[in-house]
């Protein structure tokens, strides 16, 4: 796949230009499917999902002027015949994967079958937001936080610190966000020191573009590459 891994959506012209470049055509001529699944575990998750779908959230993603926009709810897919959802995924120009709980999102990416399908979508652009970006990396930087939302008795907590590993680096979003203490660079560096792959710490005006394994940083803000 082609990846555009963002901290807070398509938040500036540089990231927008990178998205158009990956699509190979204007957003107005492109189709997309939104995956809101990751936000469900949080209090108010239903409202947050609605805001994401309707473009009322402050994160620019669904309101970009897509030719068409559909909804792909991962928790529903195990009960749906594959021939009724896989073609829609293959036909979409972009998958817009919303943020939330990385552990929950990664679990349902696997359970739904979408994780296994992703590597075959060579013409599709995967656009991640926060947790949606972390989910395709090898390691979950939010594991400790996410464990607080695991239902009692669930086996979801197993390997909570691991994600899909579809790219060969990990990502820590929201660098130096004033409302998130754990996003201070010193905290990120401490976490990254125990990770055997490079870590990109990115703020909300930065994205990572990945094509055929090649990595480009798209930024109008602040970012840092932390090597193991």
The radius of gyration is 16 Å
Q: Judging from the principal axes of the Cα atoms, what is the shape?
A: globular
SS strand fraction: 15-25%
List low-confidence stretches: none
Explain how this protein is built.
This protein is an alpha/beta fold. The protein has helices at residues 13-23, 45-54, 86-91, 102-112, 114-117, 131-134, 143-146, 185-192; strands spanning 2-6, 31-35, 68-71, 94-97, 125-129, 170-172, 199-202, 206-211, 214-219, 223-226. A seven-stranded mixed beta sheet has the order 3-2-4-5-1-8-9. The longest helix has 11 residues, at 13-23.
Short structural description:
With 228 residues, the protein is of the alpha/beta class. The protein has helices at 13-23, 45-54, 86-91, 102-112, 114-117, 131-134, 143-146, 185-192, and strands spanning 2-6, 31-35, 68-71, 94-97, 125-129, 170-172, 199-202, 206-211, 214-219, 223-226.
Fold blueprint:
Layout: E1 2-6, H1 13-23, E2 31-35, H2 45-54, E3 68-71, H3 86-91, E4 94-97, H4 102-112, H5 114-117, E5 125-129, H6 131-134, H7 143-146, E6 170-172, H8 185-192, E7 199-202, E8 206-211, E9 214-219, E10 223-226
Parallel strand pairs: 1-5, 2-3, 2-4, 4-5, 6-7
Antiparallel strand pairs: 1-8, 7-10, 8-9
């Amino acid at each position: 796949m082609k990846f555009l891994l963002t901290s807070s959506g398509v938040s500036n012209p540089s990231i927008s230009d990178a998205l158009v470049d990956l699509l190979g055509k204007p957003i107005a001529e492109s189709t997309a499917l939104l995956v809101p699944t990751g936000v469900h575990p949080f209090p108010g998750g239903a409202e947050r999902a609605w805001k994401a779908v309707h473009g009322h959230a402050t994160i620019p993603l669904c309101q970009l002027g897509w030719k068409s926009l559909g909804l792909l709810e991962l928790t529903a897919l195990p009960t749906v015949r594959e021939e009724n959802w896989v073609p829609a995924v293959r036909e979409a120009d972009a998958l817009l994967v919303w943020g939330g709980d990385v552990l929950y999102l990664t679990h349902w990416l696997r359970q739904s079958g979408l994780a296994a399908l992703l590597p075959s979508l060579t013409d599709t652009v995967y656009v991640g937001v926060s947790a949606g970006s972390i989910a395709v990396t090898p390691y979950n930087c939010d594991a400790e936080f996410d464990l607080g939302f695991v239902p009692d008795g669930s086996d979801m907590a197993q390997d909570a610190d691991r994600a899909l590993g579809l790219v060969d680096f990990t990502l820590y979003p929201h660098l130096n966000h004033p409302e998130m203490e754990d996003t201070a660079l010193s905290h990120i560096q401490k976490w990254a020191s125990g990770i055997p792959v490079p870590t990109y710490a990115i703020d909300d005006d930065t994205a990572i573009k990945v094509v055929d394994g090649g990595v480009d940083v798209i930024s109008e803000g602040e970012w840092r590459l932390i090597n193991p």
